[in-house]
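Reposting from the mailing list since nobody answered there.

I have sequence plus structure tokens for a pair of proteins and want to know whether others read the tokens the same way I do. The first protein:
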Amino acid sequence: MLSRAACNASRKLLPAVGSLGCRQKYSLPDLPYDYGALEPYISAQIMQLHHSKHHAAYVNNLNATEEKYHEALEKGDITAQIALQPALKFNGGGHINHSIFWTNLTPKSSGEPKGELLEVINRDFGSFTKFKEKLTAVSASVQGSGWGWLGFNKEQGRLQIAACPNQDPLQGTTGLIPLLGIDVWEHAYYLQYKNVRPDYLKAIWNVINWENVTERYMACKK
């Protein structure tokens, strides 16, 4: 078996040869809490369906699409490779986004960040209250399905808020490093909040894992 480092190196050196031997299938991550742990803000039924059905579907479809992509790569079939790009973006983004989302939530939320993260939020948005209002407004205004994000602009050294449609991954489409994501696909809230997205957005602030967001911020600063 090749090590992960050797596998990555071989991918860089030989992008079209032998890369199949380095492939590792993606898997559904376990949640760091029970399905019912976020109640009453997010119901157990929503969490179970969201994680075990929706996220699992992205993982399964990503693995299937990547298999087809590598087959096309080996055959030198560039037409097939191009045709598979939308599915890779959609399912890969779905897996990336949800893997971040689960860790961004906790039943033991501190209510707001502390320390350096709070300082930069105050610097870049004026106050924590203004930051919440802006991210809530951006998330509420997503047309159809998508995500609201707090990201870090590494070039500018500043926090930024952005919205991404569908399952577009934040970093892959904007360059911002994701710190906090809010899923505004209807499957994230409809069973509990119906079509009233603002009520869901008000509730989700009660279960934000600010320790996780802070860890992500500190890591991307290095």
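The second protein, same order (residues first, tokens after):
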Amino acid sequence: MASFRLPRVLNDVIRAHNDQFIKPVKPKNGVGAFVFPCRKLVFNYCERSGSSKSMMEYLQTEAVKFAQSNPQIEVIVQPRPSKHPIVRAFYTNGQQKTKCVRKCSAEEIPEVVKSLRDHSGHKLHRWNRYVISDTPSVRGIYSPFHVKEVHEISDQRSRQQK
């Protein structure tokens, strides 16, 4: 019994035709692996100013613990002379966010760092619609003024009085 084989050119055409119906998968967060949105944190402080006291205390006590517990984030500590202390976060989408911590105590700085770490990097914007839908309603928005018949709710006493 002889087996039938298509020529190589026909096989390539059939394969290309079948591939048209297969949609390519876009890499998204959560498909395959989770990519953390925050990629780098930079701590800037001044060694001489009084506003950087709490930042230096945080860096000496808790920054190493934070860096060890978050190995996916690059942590950089830089002196910034004659400036207020800041924490700057860089995100995978190219955005960056900066927080000044000059009036924060050493206990409040971890909360600021955690909020920068957990931020997605997208700019905040207000949603104008409560429901987001790909297909808007066919009927439109309901309005009681479009109804022809008016329904009344009445009890038995009002019926007897009429």
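Reply #1 (J.P.):
I read it the same way you do. DSSP finds five helices and four strands in the chain.
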